[in-house]
# Entry
Amino acid sequence: MRALAAFEPWLREKWLKLMRSIVIPVVAFSALVALAGCSSDSGGDSSGANADACTQFAAIHNELTALTVAGPNGAADVEKWTSDKNAAIAKLSPLAEQATDSVKESIQTVVTALPADSLELTEPDSESGQAFVDNSSAVASSCDSDGTTITLADFPLQAF
# Structure
C-alpha cells in the first residue's frame, strides 16, 4: 500500500491534466454550439406577405404619383383623373391586411391619414399631401427594416 501511496500525487496530477485536456474543450464546444443555436436569425428575413405588400405599396404609390404629376388633361378628364386616383388609393387598404408587424402598422397609418377627397393631396400647402409623403416614407423604412427595399417616386407637393 505504501508503494501505491508514492504514486498517488503523480497519478492525481496526470488525472487532472487528462480531465483539463478533455473537459475544457468539450465544455467550450458545447457553449459554442449553444450560442450558435441562440443566434439563429429568424427575424431578419422578410416574410413573403410583407415583401409582397411592400412591393405592391411601392407600385400603387408610384401609380398615384404618376397620376398626380400628369394631372387631368383638360376639364373633361377631371372626373376620370379623380376616378383613377381614387382607384389607386382604394388598392392601399387591403395591403395592410396582408402585411404584418411594423409594415402593417405603417401602411395602416397611410390609409387612415388619406383624405376623403383625393384632390386634397394635390392642393398647395396640403397637410394631407405632406402626411402622405411622410407616412409613405415610414412604410419604405418599415419595409427596408423587414428586408425588402422599395423605391418611391417623389410625390409632388405644391407650396405657395
User: Anything to note?
Assistant: The chain is about 70% helix and 0% strand. The chain has a mean pLDDT of 81. The two ends are 106 Å apart (CA to CA).
